[in-house]
Design goal:
It is a single chain. The chain has about 800 residues and is α/β, with parallel strands linked by helices. Helix content is about 45%, strand content about 10%. It has 20 helices and 15 strands. The chain has helices at about 60-90, 105-115, 120-125, 235-240, 255-265, 275-285, 295-315, 365-375, 435-445, 455-470, 495-500, 515-530, 535-555, 555-585, 590-605, 610-635, 645-650, 670-720, 730-760, 780-790, and strands spanning about 150-155, 160-165, 165, 185-195, 215-220, 230, 240-245, 250-255, 330-340, 385, 390, 410-415, 420-425, 450-455, 480-485. Strands 3, 4, 5, 6, 7 and 8 form a six-stranded mixed sheet that branches. It has a five-stranded mixed sheet with strand order 13-12-9-14-15, sandwiched between helices. Strands 1-2 form a two-stranded antiparallel sheet. Strand 1 and strand 2 form a beta hairpin. This is CxC3 like cysteine cluster domain-containing protein. Keywords: Coiled coil. It comes from Merluccius polli (Benguela hake).
């Protein structure tokens, strides 16, 4: 179709085959009389138009019109040149893919990647071939930062840039075929791949990434006699600490990339995967390379790498979610919800299951079944519970699912008093009582727990006892003791703090009950990245962070307990001196001290939910009678002796009425002050014994773990001698597992020696004995006792 333009730049209607509509006729009003108009003329006699025409091109000069025509011609010429260039490029035809209308292209790629999942293959070959890939460190040369091109001189003497074919640095086997080792094997480049790595120095992050013309190839070793070709497989790549991200090994990650990312996540949980990869790509660009890293491949490969590391530790008898100092007797468990750990619904993903399903975060189906069972045994009661004037949003029995655009609404976690994560679950209905009840039931089956700490214990514990009466399987939970966290107790009423507060619980020591808040502050920062992940990706990332958090806590557990014991000893002496000074200030004896403590306990025990309404009614009546008595007293008394009615009716603890006996009345506030100091001194004395017990349990735990490894290694030695191995692991893999167990035993022996020397420096009581004396036989102990008797 030809388009014709007029001189004014307008397109003619005929060239577009457009039928122009006839112009509408305007109605003219009849002139009532003659109208005379004057025309203005310039000095040359030309008529000056009264209205300027809209078509500005009519006023253009000839030079402006020529410039406009030239610019239009140049623009059209550039368009034609670009069209010719694009048509000269051969674009391959897109492959036909069976698409489902409801699936996006990203979802189809993820499903295709799952069908070719390599995780079982990686796990099966991890123990074969180079089965020491967990410990071997090859001093292979990492490619330099120079561009993989070099300058050559052609026949005409001109310098030209030629591609440099780089081969993946991997040691070749000494023998690839039956021709022997004295053959002159040749190494040629094979299949192309991409390698992502980080410098071993750890100072500057560097990526070796080839894309486009910069190719990295797998080596191919050729035998000149039989022409046999060897290329590295997955077991060879793992032996050299290369992690294949795809089944075809087109993308490889050095182990250092994953370990560095994990350590950076532990140091800064808010760091996103995208920011980490952008940093690597920026470093690649700064060294002259171009390319990008697939986010989905990195995310999947990192999760598989972390899961394989967990399976290796699991075979080495490592328990990532168990506190060595709280095994087998655990003093306290602290549970709380974290509403910041939500996840958006739009991050659906492909529905693949989590690799760490049920390891740390409980399975949603199991939690949902328990919640339904609890709700079937209770009467529906909406609203929040209150404690005095305070209303707690987390204190409720039922709650509806949020209407916001989120799937998981939060996370409920439980920790020990050393801040080690034990278990967690997903929130789907807010912070209801059934969630901590589930964690309490699960943890009671695996540990001997004494106290259960919460920030709303005064409302949760009656609820738990009511459910235990209806469900017999919950009866063992009533053997625990309630514990109101120390800091949250300040927001409750005074009677609630005295009755449920952790500082007033006998045997609790210096347990705060707020240890879960420290972990929540760590996990809340990670939510900045996990809320955009898929369901399985979020669960795996939280589990990896939880295992890393526990690993750091366990590594420094001996130093933490030693420092805590020293500080507790110093504070116990200080608080005992403060109590003595307070007794001297109040001029009371030890008998009076015990009596005041009992008075405060009785005062707090008189309050209950069942009689609260009746007590409030009686209190209102008592205030009216008191007001009448004060008015009668003020009428007869002098002005200086009159009583303030408002202060008296407020029942202030410091006000003593004139008709009360002055010598027998003691302010409740003074009694409460003495009560708090007495409870603090008792808790400090208990804390010393508790820490000593935890030190002992820590050493016992390491000793038992070492005995388990020795027992397992003994059986493995017998199996290897008899050429027996598990059906799931090959003989080479069995030997690789043995090497892992030997390495783990070496680390345990070193850790036990360090822990023992740390605790030996602490001046503990005589009740603490190091486990080094446990190796003595009974006969040796009897001989020592007999020798001591003979000496005496």
């Amino acid at each position: 179709m030809k388009i014709r333009c007029t001189k004014s730049g307008r397109v003619s209607a005929k060239s577009l085959n457009v039928v122009a509509l006839p112009p509408k006729k305007r109605k003219r009003k009849r002139a009532e009389g003659f109208k005379v108009t004057w025309r203005k003329r310039d000095r040359n006699g030309n008529i000056i138009p009264q209205h300027v025409r809209k078509n500005r091109s009519a006023l253009w000069s000839s030079q402006e019109l020529r410039n406009y025509t030239l610019m239009t011609f140049l623009k059209r010429s550039q368009i034609l040149i670009l069209r010719d260039l694009l048509s000269s490029v051969n674009v391959p035809a897109p492959t036909e893919v069976d698409e489902t209308p409801t699936m996006s292209a990203w979802t189809q790629r993820q499903l295709a990647a799952q069908k070719n999942a390599k995780l079982p293959t990686l796990w099966s070959v991890a123990w074969t071939g180079h089965d020491l890939w967990f410990f071997q460190t090859y001093s292979s040369h990492i490619l330099s930062d120079d561009r993989p091109k070099w300058s050559t001189i052609d026949q005409s003497g001109q310098h030209q840039l030629a591609e440099q074919v780089c081969v993946l640095p991997i040691p070749a086997p000494l023998q690839v075929c039956s021709c022997g080792t004295d053959q002159d094997f040749t190494i040629v480049p094979g299949k192309q791949t991409v390698l992502v790595t980080i410098n071993d120095t750890g100072q500057i992050v560097n990526i070796v990434l080839f894309s486009g013309p910069y190719n990295l190839c797998l080596p191919v070793v050729c035998c000149p006699v039989c022409e046999y070709k060897w290329t590295p497989g997955i077991n060879d790549l793992l032996g050299c600490r290369y992690w294949p991200a795809t089944t075809s090994c087109q993308l490889l990650f050095k182990f250092d990339v994953f370990t560095s990312f994990e350590e950076m996540k532990l140091a800064s949980p808010a760091l996103s995967q995208q920011a980490f990869l952008r940093m690597l790509e920026h470093r690649s660009l700064s060294t002259g390379r171009m390319g990008s890293i697939c986010r989905d491949n990195f995310h999947r490969a990192f999760r598989e790498f972390a899961f394989c590391n967990f399976k290796k530790d699991d075979l080495c008898q490592v328990e990532p979610f168990k506190c060595p100092a709280c095994t087998p007797d655990m003093l306290a468990i602290s549970a709380d919800g974290n509403r910041k750990h939500y996840r958006f619904k739009k991050s659906k993903g492909t529905g693949e299951p989590s690799l760490f399903d049920g390891l740390f975060i409980a399975q949603d189906a199991k939690v949902s079944a328990f919640v339904d069972q609890i709700r079937s045994q209770m009467t529906v009661r909406t609203g929040h519970d209150v404690c005095g004037p305070a209303t707690f949003t987390a204190a409720r029995e039922t709650s509806q699912k949020s209407r916001a655009k989120v799937d998981e609404e939060g996370l409920e976690i439980a920790v020990c008093r050393h801040g080690i994560l034990l278990q967690g679950l997903n929130h789907y209905r807010g912070e209801i009582y059934a969630y901590p009840l589930f964690l309490q039931k699960e943890l009671a089956e695996t540990a001997n727990v004494t106290f259960f700490c919460m920030d709303i214990t005064c409302r949760y514990w009656p609820y738990m006892e009511k459910m235990a009466e209806k469900l017999p399987e919950l009866q063992p939970l009533t053997e625990m003791k309630p514990f109101l966290s120390v800091m949250h107790a300040k927001a409750h009423t005074g009677k609630c703090e005295v009755r449920w507060g952790g500082r007033n619980q006998e045997g609790a020591g210096n347990t705060i009950g707020e240890e879960v808040e420290q972990v929540n502050s760590f996990l809340s920062r990670a939510d900045l990245a996990t809320k955009y992940m898929t369901k399985s990706g979020r669960a795996d990332m939280i589990t990896v962070l939880a295992m890393g958090w526990n690993r750091r806590k366990v590594e420094s557990l001996d130093k933490t307990l030693a420092k805590r014991f020293v500080k507790t000893t110093q504070r116990a002496d200080l608080e005992a001196a403060n109590l003595l000074n307070l007794k001297q200030e109040l001029n009371i004896s030890q008998e009076d001290t015990e009596q005041w403590v009992e008075d405060v306990k009785k005062w707090a025990a008189t309050d209950s939910n069942k009689t609260r309404q009746r007590k409030r009614r009686r209190l209102t009546e008592a205030k009216k009678k008191l007001q009448e008595r004060i008015m009668q007293y003020n009428d007869d008394a002098a002005f200086e002796e009159r009583i303030d009615i408002d202060v008296a009716c407020s029942l202030s603890e410091d006000l003593i009425l004139p008709w009360d006996v002055q010598g027998d009345v003691v302010s409740l506030r003074l009694k409460r002050r003495l009560f708090d100091q007495v409870m603090l001194v008792r808790r400090m004395e208990e804390e010393r014994l508790i820490i000593v017990k935890e030190m002992t349990q820590h050493c016992h735990y390491l000793r038992k773990a070492l005995d388990k490894l020795n027992h397992l290694l003994h059986h493995m030695d017998e199996d290897i001698k008899n050429h027996m191995s598990s059906a799931k692991i090959t003989e080479e893999g069995y030997r690789g597992l043995q090497c892992c167990l030997l390495h783990k035993r070496h680390l345990l022996q070193k850790k036990l020696s360090t822990v023992t020397s740390t605790y030996a420096l602490v001046d503990t009581s005589s009740s603490f004995t190091l486990p080094l004396d446990e190796g003595k036989e009974e006969g040796e102990e009897k001989e020592e006792e007999e020798s001591e008797e003979d000496d005496s």
